[in-house]
Design goal:
Rossmann fold, single chain, 351 residues, five-stranded antiparallel β-sheet, 15 strands, eight-stranded mixed β-sheet, 12 helices
């Protein structure tokens, strides 16, 4: 069966005064109907730009999407559609929960007005029917006294409630694909758990495919069928959730897992941070982009060749020139040091 969404050779760059920022560099992935795909990586790795490119929400200029890139949704390339054709898909077939609920809602419009707008546009409902549907949606996402809250403004809701309103808006037209970009950012742990549980329930009840974007591997652990890790605009590892956590094969993924606390750890084990900083996306290094920060790097080899995604196990691919596992001993190579100057902070490769 054909995937619901298939992204081929996606390349996105931004024209700036300092040069061309290669934010997404040849990304390929797919998403099946009813599946949850997790996209994980540090800030600046290209996660949100990928999602905005799929939704055709990047301003052009300064954004430039390569002409050979493809975003195939239900058999048609979204990047080739006219603006009016894309507007019929955006919000109805593909919906998005934006990163910050504090700023994503219009402060001068009531919650009811913002939810019913898409219902009238895409579902062709009249005012009364749209209001009834809006009340049902607010109840579905767990907002009490939903009929009384339609006339309230965003500032009258807490952060968690505003995020629920964003979810209600996103699922209002029963989309086939829901893109959740950092849906738990700036929320306390209890509200995070409620939002993630709500997304799981929506997938089960509505059969919606979900693309969950986050920087936290702990968030996607119990949510996603498959996970792909991004670094410097590329996918550097992809696998089903269990093998990725049990046996990561890319040093960056190993570093991410080592830097998050575990409930099953014995004693007071110290977390191991990833040294250094992400690369400058204007002047990427010639070899592996993670090489300056990698504990397993072999400078001569890793600085000369860009690793491609290769299959290390069935259904498990990693972008590394070497066969690395969690048990691989770290070679005796000096760690990269961060050099601070008066004007900037940059990585100085050691060795």
């Amino acid at each position: 069966m054909e995937p619901l969404l298939k992204v081929n050779n996606l390349k996105v760059a931004f024209k700036t005064d300092g040069g061309l920022v290669k934010a997404v560099n040849d990304v390929n992935f797919y998403l099946n109907e009813g599946e949850t795909l997790g996209i994980v990586g540090e800030s600046g790795s290209g996660k949100s730009v990928t999602s905005m490119a799929i939704m055709r929400l990047l301003p052009t200029p300064p954004a430039v999407i390569d002409s050979n890139s493809q975003v195939i949704f239900k058999g048609q390339n979204l990047l080739k559609l006219k603006d009016d054709q894309m507007r019929k898909i955006r919000g109805k077939e593909i919906a998005m929960i934006f990163q910050d609920p504090m700023t994503s809602l219009n402060p001068v419009l009531t919650i009811g007005k913002q939810i019913t707008e898409s219902l009238k546009l895409h579902m062709h409902l009249d005012d009364r029917a749209a209001s009834r549907r809006a009340i049902e949606l607010l109840k579905l996402v767990g907002i009490p006294s939903a009929d009384k809250r339609l006339g309230d403004y965003p500032h009258q809701f807490s952060g968690g409630m505003r995020q629920r309103v964003m979810i209600a808006m996103a699922i209002s037209c029963d989309p086939k694909l829901l893109i959740a970009d950092e849906p738990t950012t700036a929320l306390d742990v209890t509200i995070q758990a409620q939002i993630l549980e709500l997304l799981k329930r929506l997938r089960q009840e509505l059969g919606t495919a979900i693309m969950l974007i986050t920087h936290d591997l702990g968030v996607v652990a119990g949510m996603c069928d498959r996970i792909q890790v991004m670094y410097a605009g590329k996918i550097v590892e992809t696998a089903s959730a269990k093998p990725l956590y049990a046996n990561p094969r890319m040093p960056y993924t190993i570093g991410l897992l080592n830097s998050i606390p575990r409930l099953d750890s014995e004693g007071q084990d110290r977390l191991i941070p990833i040294q250094g900083l992400p690369p400058d996306m204007i002047t990427l290094p010639p070899g592996c982009p993670f090489e300056p920060r990698c504990a397993y790097r072999q400078p001569v080899v890793c600085q000369a060749k860009v690793p491609e995604l290769r299959e290390v196990e069935e259904g498990h691919r990693a972008a590394c020139l070497f066969d690395i596992t969690k048990e691989t001993p770290i070679p005796e190579v000096p760690a990269p040091e961060v050099v601070a100057t008066a004007n900037d902070v940059r990585i100085s490769p050691a060795g």
